[in-house]
Amino acid sequence: MKKKLGKTPTVAKITLGLVFAALTSILAPVKARATETVNIAVIQPAASVGPTYTEEDLRLLAILVTNEAGGIDSKTEKSQVVWSVLNRVDSPEWPDTIQEVISQSGQYAGYRKSGNYFPDCYEISRDVLNRWLLEKSIETSLGEGANPDVGRTLPKTFLYFNGANGHNHFKRTENGESYSGGLESPYDS
Fold first, then answer.
1. How confident is the model over 142-157, as pLDDT tens digits?
2. pLDDT of residue 15
């Protein structure tokens, strides 16, 4: 069964095209000198171009999703747990890293530094992280105010959630109204 991806493939092709074009222009002078014998030094950028994540970030998110939403059938609700963390990472009111956000005392009841995770929670976490990186890349390319459709399942302003009756309820503020949907999910049909 094919999954609905909305506009993601088009956006991904455009972004990958921009990346390929940038790499081609960077490597053109090297190709032109291919017949010369040259000592090449690899230079790392002074700073990261945008957000990244580590295998440890992914593992901790998978554990968090397993503990917060592992018993929920909806992949969308599982993905929303990850988006709530990333929304905080993007917010100036919260720490700047995934690990700092999820390990803050009293914030995520399902946070564990070690533990097991369900394979589907790992895959959802990885998929959301990659969509987040794509979103950041497009926003950087297109500038302030860009709002790319990468399959986000929770608006950027939703930073909190609590569980009740077998579901998670996402909120803008700790005691605010719950998110009632509206974004098309790439996971559940």
1. 887 788 899 999 999 9
2. 44
Q: What is the reported pLDDT for 34?
A: 39
| Percentage helix, strand, coil for the chain under 3-state DSSP, each rounded to 5 | 45, 5, 50
**Residue keyed to tokens 């605010």:** 176
d(CA 108, CA 87) in angstroms, rounded, equals 14
Q: Is 130 exposed, middle or buried (0-12, 13-18, 19+ CB in 10 A)?
A: middle
Read off the tokens for 150. 């990468």
Amino acid at 27: L
Are 62 and 104 in contact by the 8 Å Cβ rule? The answer is no
Give the separation between CA 106 and CA 87, rounded to whole angstroms: 17
Q: 142: part of which helix (H) or strand (E)? A: helix 119-142
**Rounded to whole angstroms, how far apart are CA atoms 121 and 130?**
14
**Res. 165 pLDDT band, cuts 50 70 90:** confident
Q: To the nearest whole percent, how much of the chain has pLDDT over 70?
A: 73
Nearest to 170 by CA among 184, 154, 151, 147: 154
Domain boundaries, the chain: 8-17+48-171
- The amino acid occupying position 103 is S
Rounded Cα distance between 14 and 20, Å, is: 10
